[in-house]
Amino acid sequence: MRFRRCGALLLLLVFSACASSTPPPNERGTWNPRLANLQRAAELPWTDGGRCVVREASQPWPALVEKCYRTLDRDRIEFHDTTGRCSIASADAATVGLGFCVLAAPEIAVGAVIVLGVVVVGVAIKEALNAYEFRHAYPEEAGTSRGTEVSSREAEAQRKPKSKPDPAGQDWFPPAPTDPMDRERRLECRPVPVPHRGGNDPHNDCADLLPQNSFPGWDVLVNGKQFDALVLVTRTLWDVKTDAFEKHNLHSQQFFAKVKLPELQRERRLAEACGYKFVVGVRSAAHKAALEKLDNTLAVVVMDWC
């Protein structure tokens, strides 16, 4: 209760300064407070991976800090009241901590918050930022990404034509090509998150743990093919193989690799046709060697995370 009373007093001081930091009217149309909060929080270390931040991101920044301050890794942060604003708080408010007052400011002054060491963006914050990026870049597909496998082609067919191009969309996509077939191919290349195929939890868990996976918990539909993972920052699609390959004898290993190779090569062609790189993830060096022996142009990586 004491923390809440002190926090309320500090918030009163902070909110009084918020009016001056509100974006001007001509900027409000493009200013997204939730995104701004997520980007701001991404620069700080959190003990819960940022789950509290994501949950409270739609609140004003001072309210978010009040809710999530306890989940901040304060051992890695130094707070400095460079403006002297926090020194006017009451003695009771001071007991909450200088850090809370400094961090809750609408705009953090230079040198007020110093993070020790390299900050790894919290998993929950990273997922939320990736999801925002996807929804903003691919609005049609974002509407189908939760629990449905409707393709981009179907979404486009159901959408009513516009009399004029959407100016906002031109920031992300070039003008529609005049060739209908080319336009259709481009739509098929837009990634659509779809639910994992059921029945193989270890396989799905391995795909979800892939470093920088942009959509953990989901497969990604691209060019008519459901891939196990997508890393947007490198534009790489993945097919994950979790077979106990090394437990089989050499003859069985060679047979297994030869049977699977045509499908892997087809997946690579589909990915490359849309401008993506393609990587096969395997669990053993033996599996990697067998595939590379059959096709040395195939990118194969041993997954040390699963």
TrEMBL record:
The keyword Transmembrane applies. Keywords: Membrane, Signal, Transmembrane, Transmembrane helix. Residues 151-165 have a biased composition (Basic and acidic residues). Residues 182-306 form the DUF6310 domain. The chain crosses the membrane at residues 108-125. Residues 142-184 are annotated as: Disordered. Residues 1-19 form the signal peptide. PROSITE patterns: PROKAR_LIPOPROTEIN. This is DUF6310 domain-containing protein.
